[in-house]
Amino acid sequence: MKITEYVETLAREGELLAGTAERAGTDVPVPTCPGWRVADLVRHTGAVHRWAAGYVRDAAVEPGPFPQAPELSGAELLAWYREGHEALVRTLAEAPADVQCWTFLPTAAPSPLAFWARRQAHETAVHRMDAESALGGPYAHVAPEFAEDGVDELLTGFHARPRSRMRTEEPRVLRVRSADTGAVWTVHLSAEPPRTVAGDTGEPADCEVVGEASWLYAALWNRLPLMGPGVTGDESLARRWVETAGIG
After folding, report:
1. Do the beta carbons of residue 49 and residue 84 sit within 8 Å?
2. What global pTM score does this model have?
C-alpha cells in the first residue's frame, strides 16, 4: 500500500472511532479490552497519535516518553482526541518523504514515514473495532488489501519481537491463509520468538487458519474468536494464540 493510502485510511478510521465513541458514551465498558471503558480507549489512542506524530514532526531518532493523556471525559475528551488525530494525519501528509526518525518493529518498512503511516492506520482501525464493540454491533468493513497488510504487520513485525509470548515447547508450524486475497504466511513456533515466512513453504502445518482477510485481521488481533470451521489441525495452537498473542 502507498503512504497516501495509509494516511487516508487513518483519517477515515479515526473519524469512525470518534463518532462511535461519541454514540456509545465514554463511560461504557469496552468488551474487547477488559477493564477499559470507552474513555480509556480514547485516551490511549489519542496519546498514541500524539506520540507517533512527535517522531515524524521532530525527526526524532531516539525513543521518547509516552505522553500522558488528560483526565477528561465526554465531549471534552472527544475534542482532545479529534485534535490529536487531525494533527497526526496532517503531520504524515506533510512530512518529507525522506524524513528520518525512530521506528520500533524489526521488519523494515520502505521508510520511517511509511512505517508510521502504516502503524497508525492499523492502530486506529483496531481500536475503532474496540469502540464498536462497546456499542455491541458488528464491525465496519475492512478492505481486503488493508486487512492482509495488517495481518502481515502483526505476524512479521510484532511477533518477531522478543516480547512476543506466542511460544511452544516443541517446534510447531502454524499456517495462515487468506481465502480472498491469496496471501499465505507460515509461522514457525518454538521456545524462541515466532519466525514468519511469507508463502506456503510446503512443510506440513500442525494447524491451519483460513478465512477472508478481514476475518483474519480481526481474529488474529483478538477482536473476534479465533475458532470455528476456518481452523483445522491442532486447535490447541489457536487457543494458545488467543491466550498469549495479545499485543499490549
Report:
1. yes
2. 0.96
